[in-house]
Specification:
single chain, 80 residues, alpha+beta, 4-stranded antiparallel sheet
Length: 80
C-alpha cells in the first residue's frame, strides 16, 4: 500500500484524536478513516465521496434547523 498523506477534516473538532481524516489515493480514489481506528479505512470514488458529503450536510442541516410548529388537528364536535 502506498504511503498516504492524511488530512484532518475541517469539520472535526476533537482535541483527543477524535477526528475524521481523508487522503487521496493513487488512481483517483479517496480514503477515509476515523483517527481512533486508523486501521479501518473506507475507499470511495470522488463521485461517491461527494455524494456522501452532500447527504451528510443535508442531514446535519435537517437536524439543526428550527422545528416547524405544528398544531394537532382539531376534531369536529361529536367526532370519535
Amino acid at each position: 500500500m502506498p504511503q498516504l498523506v492524511w488530512r484532518k477534516s475541517s469539520y472535526s473538532v476533537g482535541q483527543d484524536g477524535d477526528c475524521v481524516e481523508v487522503a487521496p489515493h493513487p488512481g483517483g480514489l479517496i480514503r477515509v478513516r476515523e483517527s481512533d481506528d486508523p486501521d479501518f479505512i473506507l475507499t470511495a470514488s470522488p463521485t461517491a465521496f461527494a455524494g456522501l458529503l452532500r447527504d451528510l450536510k443535508r442531514d446535519i442541516k435537517a437536524k439543526t434547523a428550527p422545528a416547524a410548529h405544528h398544531e394537532a388537528p382539531r376534531r369536529a364536535a361529536g367526532a370519535p
